[in-house]
Amino acid sequence: MSKKLDNSKKNVVVVGGGLAGLAAAKGLVTKLDATKYNVVLVTSKPYYIHLIALIRMTVSDIDDLENRALIPYDKVSGLIHKVGTVVSIEETAPGEGGSLVFVDGERLPYAALLLSTGSTWPGPLAVGDSDKEIRNNLKQWRSKYATARHVVIVGGGPVGIETVGEIKDVYPDTKVTLVHSEAQLLSATYPDKFRRVLATKVKQRGAEIIFEDYVDTTPPAGQTVDITTRRGKVIKDVDLVVPAFGSRPNTAFIASLGSGVLTESGTVKVKPTLELLHHPGIFAAGDIIEWAEKKQAAKTAKHASIVTANMVSFLAGQPQKVLYKGQYELILIPIGKKYGAGYFGLLWGILVGDFFSSLLKGKELLVSASRAALNYK
Predict the structure, then answer these.
(1) What is the rounded CA–CA span in Å between residue 215 and residue 156?
(2) In DSSP terms, which residues pair with 242 in a beta bridge?
(3) Are 40 and 82 in contact (CB under 8 A)?
(4) Which residues of 174-185 are buried (b: 16+ CB within 10 A; e: fewer)?
(5) How far apart are CA 69 and CA 53, in angstroms?
(6) CA quadruple 116, 346, 54, 129: dihedral, nearest 10
């Protein structure tokens, strides 16, 4: 732990140190009485990973991101950081706290609990947990991209689109094919005009798009093969397939609370207070909550403010009055440092192009903002 746990105090525990978890933990530190409560942040990784920069980080070593976007929690005042993998939650009784159980058998009692464990991804974004594992995976994927002549990216969501841009920025001569299951990029959440704009920009970067199709095979390491899609199209001379689809909520251990906690897709059922149904004192935020909205980093700040207020109320024995009502859809997708497009679901729907996409996100990927949030320059 970053500092010792004071066993004379109650523990308020946050599991998951991404955008939602970090913001909530910092809020709890400022709002709770430090003479009564420890605020403990539990993460499976030894540092904060600025996920917005992870795609660029896996493609090349440009901008030295592995030394800027992997940020320790040690400068967050008042926060106790514990690295470990939680395997189950044991409630004493609903509303009376309980304990987290770690993979090594260690237990950590809690008086109130926030679950903000985010999503898991296949492929390059599955970087692992330990520092050694993370850096080795980055090195391996960079090597794959550096030697590839024809990359097939499977999935035309934000991850797939951004991956096109990062490859083309560093390896402009590499052939890139993007395969997407729908008739347009992204999903029907976004207007057709925006989806068409993105397709045009992806093609302008030199990538081919195959719509309404799937890739089910991966070439053996070091080999170049022809791939036949599910609908019978042959993609010639492929030496790297990159999965960019199928994120899943990282919630397996939460099922230990009992049936009815998770949906069939693995998201956590919550009230508008973001407290779990039938489990007072346990809250959830970020990608894992069951809510009719897209899972996006920009929405986590609101989640964090709501759970912080309601956790403080719960601990004080007061009614929880702050309710989550959802947020409008917005998305910025850089296609490399200088290109991209964005959509803001306000008014009639606002679209932005290369200039704003680069300025607001693509050029620096908000790394400095995350470093500042963790008190690093």
Answers:
(1) 12
(2) 153
(3) yes
(4) bbbbbbbbeebb
(5) 7
(6) 10
pLDDT tens column, 73-126: 999 999 999 999 999 999 999 999 999 999 999 999 999 999 999 999 999 999
- Looking at the whole model, is its pTM more than 0.90? yes
Biggest CA pair distance of the chain: 66
* Orientation angle between helical segments 192-204 and 158-170, nearest 10 degrees: 20
343 closest CA partner among 324, 360, 325 = 360
Q: What is the pLDDT of residue 173?
A: 98
Q: Which of 19, 12, 103, 110 is nearest to 300 (CA)?
A: 19
**CB-based burial, 358-373: b 16+ in 10 Å, e otherwise:** beebbebbbbeebbeb
3-state secondary structure of 241: strand
pLDDT at 221: 83
Task: Report residue 58 as tokens.
Answer: 């896996």
Asked whether 330 and 342 are in contact (CB, 8 A), the reply is yes
**Dist CA 289 CA 285 (whole Å):** 6
CA 157 → CA 32, 188, 217, 369, distances in Å? 40, 11, 20, 25
Reading across the β-sheet that carries 107-110, which strands appear in turn? 86-91, 98-102, 107-110
- Which positions ≥6 away from 153 have C-beta within 8 Å? 160, 163, 164, 176, 177, 178, 179, 242, 244
Per-residue pLDDT tens for 337-359? Answer: 999 999 999 999 999 999 999 99
Reduced to 3 states, what is the DSSP secondary structure of residue 257?
helix
CA 285 from chain center: how many Å? 12
Distance of CA 98 to the CA centre of its chain: 27
Residue with tokens 């030894």: 46
Angle between helices 300-315 and 19-31 (to 10 degrees): 40
Report which residue type is found at 313: S
Q: Provide the CB-side half-sphere exposure for 280 (13 A, CA).
A: 12
Burial class (CB in 10 A: 0-12, 13-18, 19+), 204: exposed
Q: Which among 158, 136, 103 is positioned nearest to 297, based on CA atoms? A: 158
Distance between CA atoms of 252 and 249, rounded to whole angstroms? 8
Residue found under tokens 């942040």: 41
